[in-house]
């Protein structure tokens, strides 16, 4: 049961991480294009379109990472 859950959550985590990274890269790259070509509307539009979904994606990835950590039963590393 734990192995199946681990595989499932790992797959969902990987997909969520890729989606989050794609959104974050789209946000940054679009804003860079807006800055380079002096298009302030593009910078604002990029923020409007990508900021909210990127934040939701980051939260989802962090929750899935936490779940995966607990499913695997790992002990926190001591510093």
Description:
Helices cover 86% and strands 0% of the residues. It contains 2 helices and no strands. The protein is mainly α. The model has no long low-confidence stretch (mean pLDDT 94). It is elongated, with a radius of gyration of 17 Å. Helix 1 packs antiparallel against helix 2.
Poorly predicted regions are none
Q: Output the number of helix runs.
A: 2
Provide the β-strand percentage band. under 5%
Ends: how far apart? 32 Å
Name the structural class.
mainly alpha
Helix content: over 70%
| Alpha carbon gyration radius | 17 Å
Brief descriptors of the model:
single chain; 79 residues; mainly alpha; 2 helices; 86% helix; elongated
Would you spell out the secondary-structure blueprint of this structure?
Layout: H1 2-36, H2 40-72
Helix pairs in contact: 1-2
Summarize the structure.
The chain is about 85% helix and about 0% strand. It is mostly helical.
């Amino acid at each position: 049961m734990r192995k199946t859950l681990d595989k499932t959550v790992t797959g969902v985590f990987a997909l969520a991480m890729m989606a989050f990274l794609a959104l974050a890269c789209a946000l940054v790259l679009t804003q860079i294009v807006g800055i380079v070509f002096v298009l302030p509307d593009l910078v604002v539009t990029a923020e409007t379109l990508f900021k909210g979904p990127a934040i939701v994606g980051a939260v989802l990835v962090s929750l899935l990472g936490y779940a995966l950590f607990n499913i695997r039963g790992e002990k926190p590393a001591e510093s």
